[in-house]
Design goal:
By secondary structure, the chain is of the alpha/beta class. The chain has 5 helices and 8 strands; from the N terminus they run E-E-E-H-E-H-E-H-H-E-H-E-E. One of its GO terms (molecular function) is hydrolase activity, acting on ester bonds.
């Protein structure tokens, strides 16, 4: 994608207990908090609600945070976010929403930044749990929007239905990346 296209975009921060969401305006200028979903890995009700939010808000593109380690490596959280994005891709495809791109984007330090922002805003630490995931989702989405508007590449790749496909061909928003840049 080299030219920024108009449309609502969604940011997602996947955690063990909660999933934070954010939305952009149709012009892709500003990301705002949407909702925090309780994670339900047995019934997947969080993804059901998420798919409904995608539909109701006419989302054109989704950016899921990929929490790589500071050295760019994998962790349990990285694999969890990737699995979540692949499951969401499969579910959207099954519903006929194949036109919605899902990107896994590097989100190092977004949760740390979210905690700092909430602390600086004077939010009580006991209220952090309900807000930090949304703020992290806003950070993920705003980073992606800013990069796209500036004509830059977002550090990440497009999610295909099968995780095996991703390991062989991963794309940045502007096109293919070479094998040494793959997120593995």
């Amino acid at each position: 994608m080299t030219e920024f296209q108009r449309g609502v975009r969604m940011g997602i921060d996947v955690g063990n207990a909660r999933v934070g969401t954010s939305l952009s305006d149709p012009d892709g200028i500003l990301a705002t908090p949407l909702k925090t979903l309780r994670r339900d890995s047995k019934k997947n009700s969080d993804r059901r609600v998420l798919r409904k939010l995608v539909e109701v808000n006419d989302v054109k593109e989704i950016f899921v945070g990929l929490p790589k380690t500071m050295r760019g490596g994998e962790s349990d959280s990285t694999r969890m976010a990737r699995d979540y994005a692949h499951a969401l891709r499969s579910e959207l495809d099954a519903e006929g929403n194949t036109h919605i791109n899902i990107w896994l984007v590097d989100e190092r330090l977004t949760t740390v930044s979210a905690h700092r922002s909430l602390h600086e805003a004077g939010v009580s630490s006991r209220n952090f749990k309900t807000m930090v995931d949304q703020v992290a989702a806003v950070n993920i989405l705003q980073y992606s929007l800013d990069a796209l508007k500036a004509g830059q590449t977002v550090a990440g790749y497009l999610v295909y239905e099968s995780p095996r496909e991703d390991s062989h061909l991963q794309e940045t928003i502007d096109g293919p990346v070479n094998e040494t840049e793959n997120l593995q």
